[in-house]
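sanity check this fold:
=====
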Amino acid sequence: MTITRTESGIGPGGATPVAVQLTGIHKNFGPVRAVKGVDLRVTSGEIVAILGPNGAGKTSTIDIILGLSQPTSGRVSVYGMHPRKAITYGLVSAVMQTGGLLKDLTVRETVEYIASLFVHSQPTGEVLAGAGITDIADRRVGKCAAAVRPCAALRSRTRRAR
C-alpha cells in the first residue's frame, strides 16, 4: 500500500490539528493479515490518497479510520478521539466512488440534501465554490463525470475546524 499526500496549510496559532492518527495498525481476518503495521498521520485539510494493489489493506484501513472495523492491534484516533465518536460529532464523513447519489438531482440539490443530514454544514454556495464545481451546480448528477460525483457529496459535508 502506498500513501500519497499533498501538504496542508498551517492553521491559526501555527498548529494544524491532527485529523487521523494510526499507530502500528494491524488487522487480521483469521490467519490472513490484511493490514500490516500501518503508521499514518493526517493533518486537517491535508489530501491523502491510499493506493495499492488488490489485497494491500486499503479498504480495511479506511474501515478502521471510519470506525466500521476495529484493528487487531495498534491505535487509531480521529481528531483525538475514537472514530465513531468523531463521526457522531459530525467531524468525519466518507463517500465511496460508486453508488449512493440520486442521478435526477442537480449537483446543487445534492449538496443541499447531504448538508441537511448534519447539524453543522457550510452554506451551499461556499461548498460549491470550495469544491470548484459552481459552474456545474445546475447539472444533473447523472450527467456529471464519475469523478465529480463523490466530490459534490463529500464537499457538502465539509466544515471549518474549530
The chain has a mean pLDDT of 81.
